[in-house]
Amino acid sequence: MILLRLISYQYVRKHVLRTLLTLTGIVLGVAVFVGMHTANQSVLFAFEKTIDHIAGAAQLQVTAGETGFEEAALERVQAVAGVRVAAPVIEAVAHTNLAGQGNLLVLGVDMLGDRSLRDYDLEGSEEGAIDDPLVFLAQPDSLIVTKPFAERNGLATNSHVMLNTAEGPKQFTVRGVMRAGGLTSAFGGNLAVMDIYAAQKMFGRGRMFDRIDIALNEGVSVAEGSDRLRRALGPGFQVDTPTSRGAQFEAVASVYKVVANITSVCALFIGMFLIYNTFAIAVTQRRAEIGILRALGATEGQVRRLFLAESAAAGLIASAVGVLAGMLLARGMAGYIGAFMGEVYGIAERAQQVSTDPRLVFAALAIGVTTSVLAAAIPARNAARIDPVKALQKGRHQSLGEGESRRRRRLAVGAVAISVICALGKTGPLLYLGYFVTIIAAVLIAPAVGVWLARMLRPALSWLAPVEGALAADSLIQAPRRTSGTIAALMLSVALVTGMGGIARASYTSILTWVDTSLNPDMFVCATEKLTDRSYRFPREVGDQLRRVPGVAAVHEVRVGRIPFRGRPIMLTAIDVAAFHSRAGMPPIEGDPEGMYRDAAAGKGLLVADNLAIIEHLRVGDVVELPTPGGLLRLPVAGVVTDYSDQQGDFLIDLAVYRKYWNDDTVNVFRVYVAPGAKGPDVERAIQAQVGSRQRLFVLTNREVRAYISNVTDQWFGLTYVQIAVAVLVSVLGIINSLTVSITDRKRELGVLQAVGAVRGQIRRTVWIESLTIALIGVLPGLALGALQLYYWLEIARRDISGYRVDYMFPFGIVAALVPVMLAAALAAAIGPAEAAVRGSLVEALEYE
Amino acid sequence: MNKWWAVAVLAASAMAQAQDARGIVEESQRRNRSKSQRYEGTLEVINAKSKVTTKQWEYLRLGDYGDSKAMLRFTEPPEVKGVALLIHNHPDRASDQWMWRPQIGRDQRVALQDRSARFFGTDFSFEDLEERDVNQFDYKLAGEETIDGAACWKLESRPKQSKTSQYTHSFVWIRKDNYVFAQIEGFTKAGLSRRINYREIQQVQGHWTARRLEVLDAKTNSRTVLKLEKLQFDAPIGEGEFTLQALRRS
């Protein structure tokens, strides 16, 4: 502790800027880790809170996936022994026309029995606070809103509020206001309750319920109750506790955890090299200090512990700052994740509170400190091994020994060999091993590659700027330890960007190919503005109305909804397969390209999206069991196709099969083809005039749908851009760090240069060239590593994350943009250090050492 | 031996009491039997804050006590007009009930579990609208009391196992002079739930009947007063008035 105060603290005080720059890597890594996890947890917590509040006293919930089920199921549930209350529910998100209020979660309930489950805690002390319960039940425009929502919008009993319904915007009347707390906390207070039969009409649900909430008689356990219900209802229904819905959301949101972890690990990994670099330099710079300590009797262990303690303290401070920054970041991220979940998965949630889990904070601190200590381990060991006699001799610098370099090279060659074997092996564990070994190989080989590239570049640099170029190259060749960490960090950053960019580009290309072949209707008629929002549905008759519109050649009805499959919510798409195949198709992966559609159209099979087939190990001929309200539907896989409709994958079945088993003829989307000769805009206008006047609908042109898909893909890759930004930022910090050290280290050399007549411009250019060379040396192997990483990531993503089979495509465009960005960043990073180099005192510089 | 004699005497006494109690209810039902009933009811719901809401309904019944059908249709105010409840009472089990809301255009079966819910914001529950047959309950004489100045038998009734009821037990006061119900108190596990007072008892077409019912919800302290007007017994009413099709006629 004394050494830490007397020696380390003094050193840090002298190098405040460098210390700050070094720690930024940890700060960023921890901030991203805390920020993304906190945001994710907050959205999840808000969702669970909503579920909890909405569930009320319900002990069990009966569902049949997202598709809902016929009303008749209610009587079957009510007849089950031990069921005290069975209350049907429709839950949907309605769009309000209130400025700034966005969506309203509408809970459609049967007020007769529902109050046994949910406490509406109405304003006033009794039920009479619904101005008139009979009027509430009698009038389909009745609505109960929460007090926070009422206050935000200046609403009171008998106020009117406009809501979009399946039949267009309609005026609703507030007939009750729920007190704050409890149920009103759900969905951030944007909650309304209405009669379930009115809700069916409002959302075009036909005679279907979304779920039935259940309370059991006293003495009947949840396990017993669910067992009885399962037996009574059959395999087509799911009987779960309300909390299990949270688990489903968690499964969907888990992808964010993966991204958050990857980003954090990357930032921390890159940060680790910065710390390594700084400590390696510090050891070199403080060799005299260490020599004195050793001469005064300090043991090797004490010196090692001193440096490790320094790194731990630095890691702790950086992590603490990172945690605070992460909490701030989480506020922005929570909104982003909530919006994204709503956009892509149709699961809308708004996190009102962002609170950090103490366990997460502890984990973040531990990760930060561990990273820092790990990074400082080798420099600490080197410091402990410093020979005090040599250390006290002026001008004797210890440098990377040839033996160590050879060892590194041998290890690197071995690692490369393992990596190649793993890449060829293509099996799960080997892929992960190969990926990590590739990174280790790159890190091991970085110093040698750095020196080799610096030597290669020296003639070119000397040719470009005879004095400055040669000086810059020599500086890098002579002191590889000074820059090896930065080069490794840069290399990893560039590799990350290349890999991520590659995934993005390959995904875009594959998605566009799929859009061309599958989503080719001229327009899509939807019940909501967003294709993923399934709150509103059309009655089947709307299809006939559309077919009668002049200029319409064909209309294909589409019904989509998630159903549980092997414990995961999987999208089910039902369409008239024969009609679909006559105009569109999906690139086949496995199965007879024509026969698969024939079988599916005849109801003798189903098509499976490639990603789902990979993740669930489904092959053509395998029999898939789908739970339906009409019983278990067993269909063989007729074909595996490329389909990017849903990130979790989807099944495609014929609409007739769906209607038979689900007894549901509502429609989510109509695919509309315009007749030859007819003009799209004219047809669109005619649809709006003839059908839109009676029915709430949105006509999206093919171009708009493409733009929407592109936008969603952008949103998805938006997180990867965060990763890229973090990687580039950390690299720039690394360069600044290295150059600052380089200037300090070469103070005497630069002073001598100035003394013998070098002008300030030459010194500046030397520093600039050195910076650009560092960047180039980092970028070139980084691109090679990125190319390899892309291969591993595509394979890992295909096998274990999304299942998407995406072709390998090196992102030349992104690289073309990245290289100048990195060079420009390097140049910008060099400005400060270069100025420091020319503005230093000549006398002081020549007195150095 | 003496001990067994005492038990036998007590059991015999309890049986005689039970038979008496049941006999009283049977006699009450016998005297009030009619082929049909029709009236126009005015409902006043007075909540704990003394806010009064008024509604009117039209009531039709065919048959009686456990073998009857009833239709209740709101006629006022305009925003609730047409809301209706169809009841098919059964001698051996709980009734079947359906409600109709014309604005929503849906008939809806009222589940057994929902019978304890308040009937459209009044202080009656759906169960209270059923006509109960004597055989669905066990009765016990609980004493004699005076209600509204009239001497009454106080009977305790408990639903038999086959009957699903929100009430664990009830006390029923039947006037000695005309065998008309004077008061009912329904109890749940939580205690007194509802009290119904039968007032303005008059003879209409030979039937002693209350023209005013007052219901108190003991939990919310809300009261509902039902006044029976244009009361008719044994009027010709067809079976067709008590079907789901008839319910949907708003």
Key features of this structure:
heterodimer; A: 849 residues; alpha+beta; ten-stranded mixed beta sheet; B: mainly beta; outer membrane lipoprotein receptor (LolB), chain A; 13-stranded antiparallel beta sheet; 13 strands; globular; disordered N terminus
Model description:
The complex is a heterodimer of chains A (849) and B (250). In chain A, the strands form 3 sheets. In chain A, strands 12, 13, 14, 15, 16, 17, 18, 19, 20 and 21 form a 10-stranded mixed beta sheet that branches. In chain A, strands 6-7-5-8-4-3-10-1-11 form a 9-stranded mixed beta sheet, sandwiched between helices. In chain A, strands 2-9 form a two-stranded antiparallel ribbon. The longest helix of chain A is centred in the middle third of the chain and has 46 residues, at 300-345. Chain A contains 28 helices and 21 strands. Chain A is of the alpha+beta class and 849 residues long. Chain B has one domain: Lipoprotein localisation LolA/LolB/LppX (outer membrane lipoprotein receptor (LolB), chain A), CATH 2.50.20. Chain B has helices spanning 2-32, 244-247; strands at 36-46, 52-64, 67-76, 84-88, 96-101, 106-109, 137-147, 150-159, 169-175, 181-188, 191-204, 207-217, 222-233. Chain B has a 13-stranded antiparallel beta sheet with strand order 6-5-4-3-2-1-13-12-11-10-9-8-7, covered by helices on one side. Chain B is globular, with a radius of gyration of 19 Å. In chain B, 36% of the residues are buried.
Give a quick summary of the entry.
The complex is a heterodimer of chains A (849) and B (250). Chain A has 849 residues and is of the alpha+beta class. Chain A is built from 28 helices and 21 strands.
Largest interface: A-B, 32 and 32 residues
Biggest beta sheet summary of chain B:
13 strands, antiparallel
Shape of chain A: elongated
Sketch the topology of chain B as an H/E string, one letter per element: HEEEEEEEEEEEEEH
Which oligomeric state applies?
heterodimer
Give a count of the beta strands of chain A, DSSP E runs of length 2 or more: 21
Poorly predicted parts of chain B? 1-16
Structural class, judged by helices and strands of chain B? mainly beta
Task: Tell me the domain tally of chain B.
Answer: 1
Strand order in the sheet with the most strands of chain B = 6-5-4-3-2-1-13-12-11-10-9-8-7
CATH class of chain B: Mainly Beta
- Average pLDDT of chain A, rounded to a whole number, is 80
